Amino acid sequence: MRRPASASLHQRILGDIEGHILSGQWPPGHKVPSEQALTEAYGCSRMTVSKALNQLARAGLLMRRRKTGSVVLPQHTHSAILDIYDVGDEVRALNLAYRFEVRSRSLRLPTPLEREACALGARRKLLSLTVLHLAGDEPFCLEERIINLATVPTAETAVFDDLAPGPWLLQHVPWNAAQHRISADAATQTVAEALGIRPGAPVLTVERQTWRLDETVTRVRLTYPGNQHALTARFTPLNRLASSPDRS
User: pLDDT tens across 15-57, in order?
Assistant: First the structure.
């Protein structure tokens, strides 16, 4: 059945404004055109515009004020289930000195598994990074990350001296979807050597992928010694998860 024109306009307005925000064209603090201006631009009713703006406000992309209009909000640094956290903050919360070392950095093409998991073309260029996070002098977490340079071209020349890749991405790249996978694994030889544990020892693995407008931003595997780390999440009954297709 054909949708009413108002429904089509509603989706168009939603898509256009969301695209401006998630692409970075409208940064945090940007004032969105007024309802009247959008009504004239799209040739629709003010109610249709107001409905779209309210929906974007509920999604956390806009803040609406009666007299001053709508402004773009900073991107949230969390998903519906787990924070997209800075490993450095985890270490500092333990009152330990934090530092990180970039162990490897290279430009390469995606593997077949990465092409499938991240919906990447065979010739899509990636930045591949291995980072060791330390608490005091002890290994705390091994980070293995790829960054899609088609989505984040500035990452190719970024210098990760003072800021690790994770927080750098949170500061520079807006995202609109994230997925976590948590598993208990046995340390491989490479992971064991990096973390200073025996091969086969238990480790906690957190895999995360983020998207911007259906394009993969980054995919990361964070591996912790199993006896040194736990994940805690706090919920309220009002938190609801929107259903979404499995992208893994």
Answer: 899 888 877 789 888 899 999 999 999 999 999 999 889 888 8
Closest Cα partner for 90 from 236, 235, 228?
228
Kindly list the domain boundaries of the chain, sorted by start residue: 5-72, 87-225
The CATH class of 5-72 is mainly alpha
How many CB atoms are located within 10 Å of the residue 140 CB? 23
Structure token pair of residue 160: 């990760």
Q: Where are the alpha helices (DSSP H) in the chain?
A: 5-22, 35-42, 46-58, 87-93, 112-118, 165-172, 189-195
Element (H, E) at 141: strand 138-148
Domains 5-72 and 87-225 share a fold: no
Tell me the pLDDT band of 83, cut-offs 50, 70 and 90.
low
